[in-house]
Amino acid sequence: MELTTTWYLVLSVLMFSIGAVGLLVRRNPLVMFMCVELMLNAVNISFVAFGADLNDVGGQIAVFFVLVVAAVEVVVGLALVVAITRRRSDANADDVSVLRG
Amino acid sequence: MTEVVVFLVAAAIALVGALGVVASKNPVHSALFLIQTLMGVAVLFVLQEAHFLAAVQVVVYAGAIVILFLFVIMLLGVDKAEEFDVDPIAGQRPLAAVLGGALLAIGLTVMIVAVDGSTGSSATFDPQTGQPAETALDSIGADGQPITDIERIGRVLFSDYALAFEITAALLTIAVIGAVVLTRPVSRGARLEDLEPASFDLPPVAPRDKQPGHDAAGESGA
Q: Which residue of A has its CA nearest to B38?
């Protein structure tokens, strides 16, 4: 058996689907953010696999920028969670559907 | 054959971690499973000879982002188990399962077709000059030696992607400012101009030397 790009892509799809289902099912915003991280990581796997397939370093550059954006998204998202939890004792995705205090 | 074994083990680690993130009742357990997944992905990066990304994955993701998650979980005290028995929105979970299955089916179809039907061209040679391209993963340096992974990324990042790289600096600065603004203590009904200076509602601290009895009790207890 030989390791081909398709193996990486199938793994990427599996991880992305698990993350998407978790995002739909869970209601704790912190766990929902973790599921977003799973989806971003799944895409990173496919970026690197495509880059290796096309012999191009561009895939790795894309992963670099995804990493930066993921860090930024987590910082702002967690700040939002902290701000919401200050006002209501329990942070639940259903409670903040109106986006008002 | 060794590569296949390494891939299968790392992929199993990553997938089990992903399932654990979704299925754990306790957010702390989810965060720890997320670290497991990130480590598995880092091994896959090493397997594809993206050594720099593997290091960044471990340092930035597992070392910084997940620790930030854990800090917030501990700070807010939301590490109690989530109730899984009740489904607050009727039919949400079956619908999520159907949508996830559909996504999986579409994704698998596209990805399995993708490699054979890919319209991307190999970056081995520059299309204009016909010379070996600098962005190619197997490019060699001026001295005839192979360029390391990190050197190649550095060259491309600071030439072709220099503007995007500088915009990420602005993005990170904006994120830090946004986090500071969002997490400031704000009393209910306060207007924006009332926010200067920041008002921390700390209780007045009693001077220690005014309470000899308290100190003596503490020392005898110790």
A: A41
**Residue ranges of A 32-61 with Cβ closer than 8 A to chain B:** 33-35, 37-38, 41, 44-46, 48-58, 60-61
Cα first-last separation, chain B = 63
Per-residue pLDDT tens digits for B117-160: 666 667 666 666 666 666 777 777 667 777 788 888 888 899 88
* Cα–Cα distances in angstroms (integers) from residue B25 to residues A56, B32, B41, B78, B84, in the given order: 41, 12, 23, 11, 8
**Is residue B172 within 8 angstroms of chain A, CB to CB?**
yes
What number is the ipTM of this complex?
0.91
CB A9 within 8 A of CB A46: yes
* Separation between Cα atoms, residue A56 and residue B123, nearest integer Å: 5
How far is it between the farthest Cα atoms of chain A? 57
CB B52 within 8 A of CB A60: yes
pLDDT in tens, A14-53: 999 999 999 998 888 899 999 999 999 999 999 999 888 8
